[in-house]
Amino acid sequence: MGEFRSTGKDKIMKDKIEVGEYIRTVDGKFGIFDRYSARKDDSFYKSPFDCFIKLQKRKTPLQCCRDYIANHSFDSKELIEVGDIVEFIDVLNEEVIYIWNKEMLEAVKQDIEEGQTLKSILTREEFTNRKYKF
Question: Which of 9, 39, 81, 82 is the most exposed place for a label (fewest CB within 10 A)?
């Protein structure tokens, strides 16, 4: 008779995002988690947009669905993926690296752990959206 079916809410609760965590959206934007919506469950106004995230070049936090956040971590290097382009800054030079495979990804993460300063990330999604095709 009573077979248990997951509604998906139990997964979200296990994977709760904490304020201040770095987030990566499904379309490749990086930001910082700001807060969950303050609406009550019994509120008249129901909206699936239950998260607020701070994005660069945006004055107010973006209100979004939890599903829009692809990954989150307090450690920004955990959000870097294969296909991203990262920029490191050093005392002597700047270095731009394209992460083409998992081995390169692990090497970049190791460099960050060893003290390399990560200056910026261009995600593969942003690159795909902005590139000029000939």
Answer: 9
What is the predicted pLDDT for the residue at 5? 40
Determine which helix (DSSP H) or strand (DSSP E) holds 11, and give its type and residue range. Answer: helix 9-14
Under 8 Å between Cβ of 105 and 85: no
Rounded CA-CA distance 55/121 in Å is 14
> In a 3-state reduction of DSSP, which class is residue 40?
coil
Q: Which domains does the chain have, with CATH numbers?
A: 9-73 (2.30.30), 80-130 (no CATH)
Tell whether the torsion through CA atoms of 50, 54, 56 and 57 is positive or negative.
positive
pTM for the model stands at: 0.78
* pLDDT at position 54 over 60: yes
